[in-house]
Amino acid sequence: MIHKLLLQPFVENAIVHGFDKDKDGAVLKLHMEKIDDKVEIIIEDNGPGMDDELIDRINSGIYEESGSGIGMRNAATRLEMYYRKEGGLRVEKGQSEGTRIIIDIPYRTKSD
Predict the structure, then answer these.
(1) Side-chain half-sphere CA neighbours of 46 within 13 A
(2) What are 38's strand-pairing partners?
């Protein structure tokens, strides 16, 4: 079970901020994997990426007061509200370039 609005802000940010409209070859990857009692969701783009300071702020729970920061803060709040301490969010540099968002949520089925 995944909250219906959890991924939208991250996918939207990847499209709006990670893709250069004047450059071909934009890639957005979404990978989900069950690992033990968690589901790991990775959203990754090959755009310009975030600088280290911004990544550190987001990983510390400090979001921008305008622009994409509002959507990320709202998604982080939903993550906390629906999954409590069982949910997690972190940002990393992409494997070759771009940005990588990793979301961990508890594995639950509709019958749980």
Answers:
(1) 8
(2) 35, 106
Distances (CA, A) of 75 to 40, 46, 103: 16, 22, 10
CA 38: distance to chain centroid?
16
CA–CA separation, 19 and 3 (whole Å): 26
Per-residue pLDDT tens over the stretch 46-98: 998 888 998 999 999 888 765 656 778 888 888 999 999 999 999 999 887 89
Domain boundaries defined on the chain: 8-19+27-106
Name the architecture of domain 8-19+27-106.
Answer: 2-Layer Sandwich (3.30)
Indicate the pTM of the whole model.
0.87
Query: Which H or E run includes 43?
Result: strand 38-45
